[in-house]
């Protein structure tokens, strides 16, 4: 990675951010505020917890909709056995264990439970939980200061822009998290950047505690814009 390229990406993003006035642009911060206010893995009514976590006043599409989505599959699992869902999320979130193995086990458990869901609901389903971006959503919303949302295509473009070599492969989500920790550390030291984003967020509507949502916004902005830079 090249520090000057990372800093240049911050400068381009700051100019972009200064021109944003539409509150819908900051829907991720609204979603995270709602999620953090309702998240409770130890609740006795876990299905309601997930239903409330996945709500938004701004958008209904972020979690994939109500049907044929990762959210829909989780809701079906919760209807059958909420304790099982609690166990697989506990394992996914257990920082004492290797992250790669935690992710692999989470996908494996969903693969195994797919047959139970199909038997219960009488139809074939896709669980969608083998998508690394979906797993990154869970991690980044439950532990927003530790993990960042993973979108490989945009990240690959941004990685090229800031001189990451060799180019990351799609399965290298652990490498992605490591790079984002560096971006996060540098972004927190950019006081102008922090002042701009803080001026855009409404404490009554948006999550304003420490999180990597800004890192996601920076790399996806450049990921989409790379061809014109």
Written account of the structure:
With 229 residues, the protein is mainly alpha-helical. It has one domain (3-228). The protein is 62% helix and 0% strand. It has eleven helices and no strands. The protein has helices spanning 3-18, 27-38, 46-53, 70-80, 82-92, 99-121, 132-142, 152-161, 173-188, 191-200, 213-225. The radius of gyration is 18 Å and the shape is globular. The mean pLDDT is 91.
Q: How do the strands and helices of this protein lay out in sequence?
A:
Layout: H1 3-18, H2 27-38, H3 46-53, H4 70-80, H5 82-92, H6 99-121, H7 132-142, H8 152-161, H9 173-188, H10 191-200, H11 213-225
Helix pairs in contact: 1-10, 2-3, 4-5, 4-6, 5-6, 8-11
Output the helix-strand order. HHHHHHHHHHH
Helix fraction bin: 55-70%
Rounded mean pLDDT is 91
- Specify the overall morphology: globular
Strand share of the residues?
under 5%
Rg: 18 Å
Work out the number of β strands.
0
Class from secondary-structure proportions: mainly alpha
Number of alpha- plus pi-helical segments: 11
The description of the largest β-sheet is: none
The unreliable regions are none
Supply the number of structural domains: 1
* C-alpha termini separation: 18 Å
Tags for this entry?
229 residues; globular; 11 helices
Compact overview of the structure:
By secondary structure, the protein is mostly helical. It has 11 helices and no strands.
